């Protein structure tokens, strides 16, 4: 790895729905294009030798506010990726895979659970390259909960 490169890159996609609308296409097509950009970017990140790549796929707010058709389409895209190209690339290139966020608490994602769990398990020993997907993630909530845990762990009754 070159010394002037970061050790961690994050990406937060934005504009897939606007892109679809601009081109007169269904929303899901914008997400398909976004997925292709994700694959391109993650490949470049790891080829450059950057060991950590975090992709904020969807916030908790997005999971709760998007319509069912769009969410089901996104789930299908993730499922397709996890069953094919992404899984193969992660294993071939020894990239550790993790998904963080509150996606497990939202019932529509149960078909992703075994796929994600399997891929996390298969890649758990890889340590040179790390891909983290944030799905149903809320950074503010995570920070607040972390502070609360610290406060509670140091609290002493009088």
Topology:
Blueprint: E1 8-11, H1 16-22, H2 27-47, E2 52-59, H3 60-65, H4 68-83, H5 85-92, E3 95-100, H6 113-123, E4 129-137, H7 139-154
Parallel strand pairs: 1-2, 2-4, 3-4
Helix pairs in contact: 1-2, 2-4, 4-5
Q: What is the C-alpha radius of gyration, as a whole number of Å? A: 17 Å
- Average pLDDT confidence is 84
> What is the beta-strand fraction?
15-25%
Structural class given helices, strands, pairing? alpha/beta
- Overall geometric form: globular
What's the main sheet like?
4 strands, parallel
Low-confidence stretches: none
SSE run = EHHEHHHEHEH
Number of helical stretches of at least 4 residues: 7
**Main sheet: strand order:** 1-2-4-3
Question: Whole-Å distance between the termini?
Answer: 52 Å
Short note summarizing the structure:
By secondary structure, the protein is α/β, with parallel strands linked by helices.
